[in-house]
Amino acid sequence: IWAKGIESKSGVKTEEDRILAYSARPPFTADFSCDRENKNAGCIPISNFYVNFTSPILKSETKKITLESGGKTWTAKYRGDSGEDAEADGGTVYGIFFEGPFPEETKFRLDIPNSLRDETGRKLSNVNKFPLEVKSDKYPPLAKFSGSFGIIELEAEPLLPVTQSKLAKEV
Question: Average pLDDT of 70-80?
Fold first, then answer.
């Protein structure tokens, strides 16, 4: 509010309150997410790991964000990443991902450099949360056994109809 009675340098006073409408941007933050079996579980290692931003960053900055574990480093990608030099792609992104699969039951270190800025030059307001420790869980049962078969529990209540193919052998 520009209040009634505010005087300019030349001595002219405002005669009434003036309300100036504006909206403030949220702070520039980053958050991590991944697929999980439940809220207390680690990340499912066959899926991607994601980092999202509240403001866009330059695509060239994405290559500075890393995920490390046991001497191996994963480089961040963004949707549409051609694998070429990020500078050549130009533009901005609101998020990045690290492509799975990852080792199971492993601790990772997600590192976002202190120098990261959004497209307007603002510093990451929650940079103190990084590096962030991220844990992967065990592989889901069906991811461990890739093949053309299924598992049916002997005394479980069926949830889906089962069709037996001509190639199936009797047990």
Answer: 88
Maximal CA-CA distance, the chain: 99
Q: List 77's β-bridge partners, or say none.
A: 97
Closest CA to 30 of 68, 73, 71, 76: 76
CA dist list (Å): 29 to 13, 17, 22: 42, 36, 21
Q: Enter the DSSP assignment of 51.
A: E
Write the pLDDT tens digit of every residue in 128-143: 999 999 999 998 876 5
SS3 of 93-143: the string is EEEEEECCCCCCCCEEEEECCCCCECCCCCECCCHHHCCEEEEECCCCHHH
The pLDDT score that the predictor gives to residue 140 is: 82
Q: Which token pair is 161?
A: 């109809």
| Number of neighbouring beta carbons within 10 Å of residue 97 | 21
**pTM exceeding the 0.85 threshold for the entire prediction:** no
Residue bearing tokens 């961040």: 76
Q: What is the mean pLDDT of residues 45-50?
A: 95
